[in-house]
Amino acid sequence: MTARELAATLEVSMRTVYRDVEALGAAGVPIHMERGALGGIVLADDYRRALAQFSTDELQALFASGPGPLADIGMATPAAALQKLAGALPAMQRRAAESSRDRLFVDHNRWSRAEQPTEVLVALRKAAEENRRVRMQYRDRSGTATNRVIDPLGLVAKAGVWYAISREGDKGYRTFRAERIQRVDVLPETFVRPADFVLEAYWSESVSTIERQTQETFDVVLRVENAALPKVTSFWEHAILAEEAASTTLRVGFPSRDVALAQIIVLGASALDILSPPGIPAAIVARAADAIARYGSSANEIVMPASAKPK
Questions:
Q1: Whole-number Å distance between alpha carbons of 160 and 142
Q2: Is-contact 255 218, C-beta < 8 A?
Q3: Looking at the 3D structure of the chain, how many domains does it have?
Q4: Which of 48, 58, 187, 304 has its CA 20 to 30 A from that of 37?
Q5: Which residues are CB-contacts of 105 (< 8 A; sequence separation ≥ 6)?
């Protein structure tokens, strides 16, 4: 259509039409002006056609997702992007998309997820994009803090938990849990990204390795009070079986039977119930009996420093 025709249809001035065409073009809409007798203001044929081809199921799949993990690394939230998409949809499809939000919701995060370190993740994402080396302070599972220099190759979110995939000197590729990174300093020096490194392929192989190891673990089914749940889920592979108001039942994969017994004893009987396998409670009682036999006679002794003993 010509600018004159658009102005008459929209009941605005031609100046307004030209201004809006420029604004739409700057926003990325494929609209342009063609000169000549048959010219006018043209919107690319595929623009509306591509949007109109969304099925109802496809729109529901797009609009059903809740706040995603990309917000943890400082990227635009899906809601903002979807709002722009909704504005470009035909009226009928826009109503279907908006309706799906009230009927379907997908939460990407697992239960009792620890707060993800947004500032650390943003710094790592930018360093990976610019191939910049990083010095970080990392606290491992045992609580030991170390300083490391790494080449950040990418970030992966697994059930809402972020991992930094990196190369650490001659140690090769390493995977660091982001919530254990205490501090990140981006260094001025750059690194050469490995030509054969593919983030998705590396992660898929890592997951397969972990799953193979998990299959060889000693599985215990526990009913754990929700207040004590992070003490289990933060360290051990697990699968949630049932959820109640005050507790969660889950299958936990421990590296061995001895580790399972030790961990259950540490958590204490008040925090959990052992549902299976049946031999675990008896094994814990046996360990308690051994401890009583060894230390019971000295349980009431009070050890005092020499300076505090009465004269």
A1: 22
A2: yes
A3: 3
A4: 48
A5: 64, 66
Q: Which helix (H) or strand (E) holds 155?
A: strand 145-158
CA 189 to CA 175: how far, in whole Å?
21
In this structure, is residue 156 part of a structural domain?
Answer: yes
| Confidence (pTM) | 0.55
Q: Is residue 301 part of a domain?
A: no
Which two three-digit tokens encode residue 203? Answer: 């992660």
Whether 310 maps to a domain, the answer reads: no
Determine contact, residues 276/254, Cβ cutoff 8 Å: no
Residues 273 and 185 in one domain: no
Chosen domain end from 142, 162, 197: 197
Examine the domain organization and report whether 25 and 68 are in the same domain: yes
Alpha helices in the chain (DSSP H): 3-10, 14-26, 45-52, 56-63, 78-88, 91-101, 118-130, 199-215, 229-233, 257-267, 279-295
Q: How does pLDDT run across 274-303, given as a tens digit for each residue?
A: 999 988 999 999 988 888 888 877 655 545
